[in-house]
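INPUT
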Amino acid sequence: MVKRTVLPFFAILLSASAFAQSNNGVTLSGSIQSDMMIAPEQDKKIGTEEYDNNSFLTNTYVDLLMQSKKIDAGGRFEFNQLPMPGYHNPYNNFKGWGVSNLWMKAKLKNVDVTVGSFYEQFGSGFILRSYEERSLGVDNSLFGAHAAWTPAKGIRLKALSGLQRNYWKLNKSIISGADVEFSLDEYIKSLQNSNTRLSIGGSWVNKREDNENIMADVTHKLNLPEYVNAFDLRARLQHGGLSVLAEYAQKSQDPNSLNKYIYGKGHAELLSVTYTEQGVSALAQVKRSENMGFRSMRSESPLSSASYVNHLPAFTVDQTYSLAALYPYATQTEGEWAYQASVGYKFKGRYAPKFKVNYSLVTGLDNSWENRKGTININGQQRNIQGTDGHKSSFFKNGDVYYQDFDIMYEQKYSRSFELHLMYMYQQYNKTIIRGEGGNIFSHVGIAEGKYRINKKLTLRAEAQYLYTDHESGDWGFGLLELSVAPYIMFTVSDQIGRCEPENGVYGDVTHYYQAIITGNIGAHRIQMGYGRTRSGYNCNGGVCRYIPASKGFTLSYNYNF
Amino acid sequence: MKKFILSIIAAFIAVTHVQAQMPKVVLKDISGRTVSTDSIGNQGYPVIVDFFATWCKPCNRELSNIAEVYEEWQSETGVKLVAISIDQAQNAHKVAPLVSENGWPFETILLDTNSDLKRQLGVQTIPYVMILDGRGNIVYKKNGYTDGAEEELIEKIRELAK
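OUTPUT
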């Protein structure tokens, strides 16, 4: 009975949409993503949270998108009322459900105008980036109006104004901005003819936020700026295999909880050079940033990942092997120097080896410690740093090492069926700086990964990893086996072995963090079922980290795109 | 009656899939050229659109596996692969080195540094692959990668050529 009523209902819906499509060129599309944890278990050994019996946790998102020749519209429904472990915390308001995103876009001749929720990025994101990263629970979309205009070939103008999403509310400050980018090679024929591309760009962002009562000390109230302005200038040159990007950004007085309410200006500089030709690559990058934490709510908790107007990702290699990513770096907004260099070489021939060497180094500025301490000496008097310009830095001086890693990778395919990857990494992680305490952790990581193709259908992949250190929780081991049955199914088992979470400052017994996962990739459907233990730690993506508490249980993930 | 309804549904689903095309998003490629994604085409031949990132291991395995058979695929079906990196802007400079280190032979590598195209297409997780037919219609979508699944892709492309 149910079937009979449901089927015609869907038939009508689908025929309506198909009718619309065939007549007006309207397409409907969307996606569903649901991560679930079913009856999470308590496990004292690994320090899980306490759950009610038979509880069910989920982060679920449904996106719908309608596109036509002149108008696009879309929205998102989120159900995060029973969030997965670690998403909701005392500093945010992740828990909730409802329509979180709604927009409409008119596509005129050279102009696109959007009203409602939108995402945007100016340049490298030094002064503005709104984006969504579900694995971190980040969605700092703006709600307001946005226009993108292409007045002529090679010129792109953008303007926007709106309020920023802070989970289930909008922050009160108004964020406005404009951006222009010129692709000069579209005009200058000689550039095109010599295979040279040159683009320059500039942007401006303004935040208007009401004054509020924040005290510098018992008797002095801070005189807070109502407007904060930020500028960004950039140039990118590409010629053959050479590419150079230079970018500069500046922010006006912006006392906020991140910088301890100091009045110094913020600025950031980036220079990146890469060279590539078939089989060869080289990269050198340097970035300096100081006091560039830019938020749409000045009193937002420094521990929350919400309310960021700009984006300052970690300027280090994104490590993807589990143990190489055990101690991930996150950008320190008060200031840092970050350097990266890498060289890659692939020998000629189908079964020839490939090598890559990476080095990343991040240090503080020479004033970082002083600013962290939160006091300053003025006219011989030691006082709170709030309300002052903070300690001055000298541009080229480096402070303490915050992070460094050196890694060397080797990859080779020996035959059509066998492939081997080896990696060694040396890492220094200044936990005191990054997490508040713990000192320096020096570690050596060795990794071997092999892939064997049994036949056209079956492939077996294995990973063995070992992390050696005298510090913190000591050594860690990791092993993984993955059987792929093409084209749909994957079976993965893994175990991460090391000492479990500390009790009264002493690390516990050697513990197995085992996982078993089955993944099905069928067309636009992806379904993943797993059972196992997850260690508490940080999940980092692009320099933003989310704390994940320990958990144990059955997980189910479903993803579909239509 | 049930069969009738089911076949109508099947037909409409087919229509939905045939009708959808690449939306218009303006992106840069790794050589600095400006590319409008609605112009992605291959002169009547099919196109594979593959979302990846430098930090995504399965994506890199998939692209390397396709790279090995790419020449054969091209001479057999005329197919072209457009790879779309979703690396964020401050990492986008690492894409060209990755491509050359791996010797990937794909002509077009686009940088979707704030996931604008990814969002327009409703893509949530990568690797993610779409096949466009000779008229630019999105005819197949594949979420995730299983080693060896590239065989399924070329099968779909061969069906298009029939």
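end of record. The first strand of chain A starts at residue 27 and ends at 38.
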